[in-house]
Write a structure and sequence with these properties.
Length: about 400
């Protein structure tokens, strides 16, 4: 039993290492974007196009990943994708023109999309093999990577260190741990010869609905990240320093709650957490919309971050347990739909804000929280195995 628990802990820690990578690299890239803007001489439109290249490239590999995983396994593709990710970030730091920045952001997006699918497929396999909830902790690792990157990026910027040296210092330290964790990745389970035909089929409706709920959750997250500070600054009268805290408060609440999410799943079950969390998020967004005080709005965004923090990990976990669906297929379907919300909802929200005003446009986010609340009843139809199984029982 102790051996099995130790094996589970090492395997989960190894997978968490690969979850940290995308959060760390993306956080470093975005935190040093002002330095890259000066370095390349790009204007705001060109920076936007570079980020668009990143998003489009990520979506390409999100769509292609099921076929790549079916051909070469999630373990092999995670090794390749994560290695490319560590190389892509310094390439961004080497960019000297807007065109080079756009191209390197494209390479970064390709490696990010591939890594994301494969790391979630590995997380699903861990839950299947050990029958223990793990996805919340793994997604917390991604959030922790983002927070660490933001802090380290700010520190390096304060000392006037250029982005390339910043990227290299952190990436080299991170890569030093790679040889220890690589051997503990799981091999994909054997699949039937007809798996290639299965990969071409439309996913089961349950998986699609999980993906649409993940889309709503990521849309809420994207709206908080890209429009939260602007709301506080332009509508609520907050100072620029106070408005800048929105993403930090949101991400910190998300990371903290995800750290305890797996324990809560075993005690309360998926429906209770999803329903209660989405209700908390709706209440938090309501506070943001009606409160005239910036500090109370920050507390509202913390509630939104805490409320939706565990929903996406639960959706990945439940989709991965669906009969007849491989981890790669489940991970790809959820990821494609989820990232569609993250990439395309915030710009759409901007178009609505241009016509109706920012505060009124954010009512859409409030509605999305209630959609998540209603969608949580989907998770009540089948009791999650994570609530009853544990490593100790094995």
């Amino acid at each position: 039993m102790k051996l099995k628990c130790s094996e589970f802990a090492i395997t989960r820690a190894s997978c968490a290492y690969f979850f940290i990578g995308p959060g760390l690299t993306y956080g470093l890239l975005t935190s040093r974007m002002p330095a890259l803007k000066l370095q390349t001489g790009a204007d705001e439109t060109e920076i936007g196009l570079s980020l668009l290249c990143l998003g489009i490239a990520a979506m390409i590999t999100l769509f292609a990943s099921p076929f790549l995983i079916a051909r070469w396994s999630s373990k092999t593709m995670l090794r390749i994708g994560s290695a490319l990710l560590l190389l892509a970030l310094p390439l961004c730091g080497l960019a000297s023109t807007p065109f080079q920045l756009a191209m390197t952001c494209g390479v970064f997006g390709l490696s990010t999309g591939l890594t994301d699918i494969c790391m979630n497929a590995q997380g699903i396999q861990i839950e299947r093999k050990y029958r223990a909830s793990s996805m919340s902790l793994l997604h917390a690792s991604y959030s922790i990577g983002c927070v660490l990157a933001s802090l380290l990026g700010s520190l390096f910027a304060a000392f006037g260190i250029n982005s390339l040296l910043n990227f290299l210092c952190i990436i080299i330290l991170y890569a030093c741990l790679r040889p220890f964790f690589l051997p503990h990745l799981l091999n994909d389970p054997p699949v039937e010869q007809s798996s290639s035909k299965k990969s071409l089929r439309v996913p089961p409706i349950f998986i699609i609905i999980c993906g649409l709920l993940a889309m709503c959750s990521y849309a809420v997250e994207g709206a908080a990240a890209e429009w939260g500070s602007l709301l506080l600054f332009t509508v609520k009268g907050a100072s620029e320093q106070t408005a800048a805290l929105v993403l930090g408060v949101f991400a910190s609440a998300t990371a903290i709650c995800r750290l305890g999410g797996d324990y809560l799943r075993t005690r309360l079950g998926d429906f209770t957490i999803s329903f209660g969390g989405s209700l908390l998020a709706a209440c938090g967004m309501g506070i943001v919309l009606i409160s005239p005080w910036p500090v109370l709005c920050l507390a509202g965004y913390a509630c939104v971050g805490a409320g939706i923090s565990i929903i996406v990990p639960i959706l990945f976990s439940r989709a991965g347990k669906y009969p007849g669906v491989t981890p790669g297929e489940a991970s790809a379907t959820i990821s494609v739909l989820a990232y569609s919300g993250l990439l395309f909802f915030p710009p759409t929200l901007g178009a609505v804000a241009h016509r109706a005003g920012l505060e009124k446009s954010l009512l859409i986010v409030f509605v999305l929280c209630w959609i998540l609340c209603s969608g949580s009843f989907l998770l009540k139809t089948k009791k999650s195995s994570s609530a009853t199984d544990s490593v100790a029982q094995k």
